[in-house]
Design brief:
There is one protein chain. 27% of the residues lie in helices and 20% in strands. The protein has helices spanning 7-18, 44-53, 56-63, 70-82, 99-113, 124-135, 148-160, 167-178, 198-213, 219-236, 261-268, 276-291, 340-343, 389-393, 413-416, and strands spanning 355-358, 363-367, 374-378, 398-399, 422-425, 439-442, 447-454, 457-466, 469-478, 482-487, 491-492, 504-509, 512-520, 524-529, 541-550, 553-564, 574-577, 581-586, 589-594. A hairpin with a 2-residue loop joins strand 18 (581-586) and strand 19.
């Protein structure tokens, strides 16, 4: 299997990644690559510029130690044409909220890392054109999120190239980013309902790039950046299991192995937030895991998708070149060969607490004993104006073994692929599941959600993580009759669907067992074949679930859910249910959940 331990191995993997791009460079389309045909919210021209510039996330680091590369000449020619307003290949004037602002970041890093090989090779006129095209970002409106770092990087690059730049703009953008900071190294991405991979592969990544290039000019800020990155690493490593799989969660998952780029940036900025050997193990296992998936097209291009090519779950800004954002992880190639990282021995993932509530990340993390299965239980998370926000942010649990699913439609239950959510319908069709919590709590032993699928329906869902399983307690108040489906983990299947019996639905598969049991209020258990390509891990899945008919008034539903690896056996807890409370006992752990109240103590 491919290895990513030495600088030579990583360099070879980078070359193998970009070689399939070479046939797409054309003198008839300078500064652009047309790698596909599907659409985005931005124009085809911008899609082609994005596809051209995104590989610079890897090419820039690669060129710091490579003597020659055929792509350097292609890129210098394309960049000079794309930034020349008199050229037919001009990328154009940048507008407010323009996708081209995003692509300025990789170009800025390209210049910062290789000024002698890039900027210094341009004529004065070409330098002026490039400067003018980049610096227009200072005059544009941008979203209030990680985009503020794009302006910071552009201005830092122009400063280092001895061109005019705005220190005032840098300070202003850092002031906005500072408003995102929570604690213990965690930021939100503009909104306090969004704690996803943008915290790692955007905010911290760009911060560490800044720290590397501005250490002398801005030592106080750099010290804060490094301290926060160190804090962040202690809990962000809980987003990976011992096999290298990262928790599938949030938007922009088509960027795939960018998930580990934060750790590459730590090495680049010389921040030993974790032992170098542990960082090396995280990076190596993660990259090897991705190379074992079907992420490439038949001609070797990175596809839009996750474990396989899949446009169904993609965001509107996922163009055919977007996946090359993943090359951010190749920032390691800009780390000198004598850095202690390269001499360190790979170490396994170390997790001191297998059950860990991290409220600042709006998540609760649970590992199995071998650390080979990670489950994350988020609360209070959501994203506005993006595809499938309920599925990507608001399920009760996410898994590194079973993945998660997004809906194709909401009319039939099987179309919605509602794994690990409570989906409800008023007439048997048009299902709704949990979106943004109205109130929530992440406690040391449970996660609590209060939510309203309709204005006249109020639900409190309490999730209790246990060894090998978790308990769900749903307290429902409704003025209308409802039909409720509580879904377990989706699991791959290849033959006939199994049949649910005795209030329990199970799907056994090569990757493990998905099991759900209705303990209170559920009337039947069943298994459906979900619409193909709804799950991010497996093209064909089956979904075990339990069903309840709910009358107007107050109802309590209780279910027991497990996602087990093939060698695991469920350790079933003792559960006592009364009108006042649900008591859960497993080994020495005893948890009591009071029913029928909306306690202010857990409201955020």
């Amino acid at each position: 299997m491919d290895s990513f331990l030495t600088k030579e191995e990583i360099s070879n993997q980078f070359v193998a990644l970009v070689e399939p791009l070479e046939p797409f460079f054309s003198k008839k389309n300078l500064g652009r690559l047309k790698l596909g045909s599907h659409g985005t919210v931005y124009t085809e021209s911008t899609r082609e510029v994005e596809a051209f510039l995104r590989p610079l996330w890897g090419l820039g680091p690669f060129l710091t130690s490579a003597e020659e590369n055929v792509l350097l000449a292609e890129y210098l020619q394309g960049i000079t044409a794309g930034t020349n307003p008199d050229s037919p290949f001009y990328w154009g004037t940048v507008t407010d909220y323009d996708q081209l602002i995003v692509e300025m970041a990789s170009l800025s890093l390209f210049l910062l890392l290789n000024k002698e090989k890039t900027w210094d090779q341009l004529t004065e006129k070409e330098q002026a054109n490039l400067h003018q095209w980049l610096i227009q970002v200072n005059e544009r409106e941008i979203p209030r999120n990680n985009w503020h770092f794009f302006r910071i990087l552009v201005n830092v690059a122009m400063k280092k190239c001895n061109m005019s730049y705005s220190q005032q703009q840098i300070e202003s953008d850092f002031m906005v980013v500072e408003e995102f900071y929570q604690k213990n190294g965690w930021y939100c991405d503009g909104e306090e309902t969004q704690f996803d991979y943008y915290i790692s592969f955007a905010i911290h990544y760009y911060s560490l790039v800044y720290a590397r290039f501005m250490a002398e000019e801005d030592p106080e800020r750099v010290a804060v950046i490094k301290e926060r990155a160190t804090f962040f690493a202690q809990t962000f490593k809980h987003w990976f299991d011992a096999k290298g799989e990262a928790i599938p969660f949030g938007r922009s998952l088509t960027y795939r192995f960018a998930q580990v780029s934060f750790f590459s940036a730590l090495v680049f900025a010389d921040v030993e937030a974790l032992p170098w050997g542990e960082i090396k193990g995280l990076i190596n296992r993660h990259m090897k895991n991705w190379w074992a998936q079907e992420i490439f097209s038949t001609d070797g291009l990175l596809t839009v998708g996750y474990h396989y090519e899949n446009l169904i779950f993609a965001e509107g800004y996922n163009g055919f070149g977007s996946p090359y954002w993943a090359l951010k992880s190749f920032l390691l190639l800009a780390v000198p060969a004598d850095h202690p990282y390269w001499q360190a021995q790979e170490q396994p993932l170390t997790i001191d607490e297998r059950f860990l509530a991290v409220p600042e990340s709006k998540n609760f993390y649970q590992y199995n004993r071998e650390l080979t299965h990670l489950q994350a239980f988020p609360a209070g998370q959501f994203v506005q104006f993006q595809n499938h926000p309920h599925a990507k942010y608001s399920k009760f649990v996410y898994s590194t073994v079973f993945g998660f699913s997004v809906p194709k439609q909401d009319y039939w239950y099987y179309e919605g692929a509602y794994d690990n959510v409570l989906a409800l319908a008023k007439d048997g069709h048009y299902f709704r599941s949990k979106g943004l919590d109205t109130h929530f709590a992440i406690l040391p032993d449970r996660i609590v959600h209060e939510w309203n699928p309709w204005s006249d329906v109020s639900i409190v869902s309490t999730i209790v993580p246990l060894e090998t399983c978790h308990v769900r307690i749903h307290e429902i108040e409704t003025k209308e009759a409802l039909r409720a489906y509580d879904g377990g983990f989706s699991a791959p299947y290849t033959s006939e669907l199994p049949v649910a019996e005795g209030g329990v639905a199970e799907v056994a598969s090569p990757i493990g067992l998905s099991r759900i049991e209705g303990l209170l209020g559920f009337e039947e258990a069943a298994i459906v074949r979900t619409e193909p390509n709804t799950n991010l891990f497996y093209p064909r899945t089956a979904l075990p679930h339990v069903v309840a008919n709910i009358s107007p008034g107050k109802t309590v539903l209780v279910s027991l859910v497990a996602g087990l690896l093939p060698e695991e056996q469920m350790e079933k807890p003792t559960i006592e249910i009364s009108n006042e409370q649900v008591k859960v006992q497993q080994n020495e752990k005893r948890i009591e959940v009071a029913l029928g109240t909306r306690r202010k103590a857990w409201k955020n």
